[in-house]
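Pasting as-is:
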Amino acid sequence: MPLRKSDVIEIIGEKAVGFSVLGVVAAAIGFLFRNYQRYEYGGMLTGIAWVMILGGLGLIAFSIYASWQMKQVTGYHVTCPYCSAKNVLVEPPDDDFKCFVCHRVIPIKDEKPLPVFQVRCGYCNELNYYSEKNDVLICEKCDHEIPLVGEDEGKEIRHVPKAYAVTDDERLYELVLVSHAGHKEELITALQHMLALNRNQVKQLLDEVPVTLLTGITRKKAELLQAQLSIHSAAAEYRPLG
């Protein structure tokens, strides 16, 4: 994952501060040893004192060098195609990476971000994004696959078919149960919650297939209920009224 310029500067800055503090402490202790031994030990600690003094000054010098390095860190700007935030990296990215603001994966090609396109899921109306690098697009909300390749005069072309991209439908629908795998407990319970009926009423409906379960509902609701029934081995169709 590419490194942010701010992260690199922060790492170098922490090192500079750490070496500076250690250098000051070491030099101070060295000076104390030097002055103390002069009166108490007659020069016995002179070597140790000078080692600490010189070591401390060396650490301080290194911290100054690290501070200078902070100013030399280069910045490479990558604008997020999702939220337009500027990601400042230390070098051009050679692979996809997550935006530091919106945390979406920025598609990269030839060290540059690719444009992204929007599409609303034809099942749940959730807004999704894709780029030319996407081979498969799965809705972030309902996990349905949104096709990215259609056909034009027998040739495959890369786009989102309108049937999946357009979801504004003002018509009302009816949901019809056309088949099921038997009176399974999970299916009965699901239909009880869906239709607000008791067990006997649900069992009677299952014996009358095909049967209309709901009428006057939106396409979005019909699709969600259809998907819910399919989990319990039941097939349903939604048909526009009128």
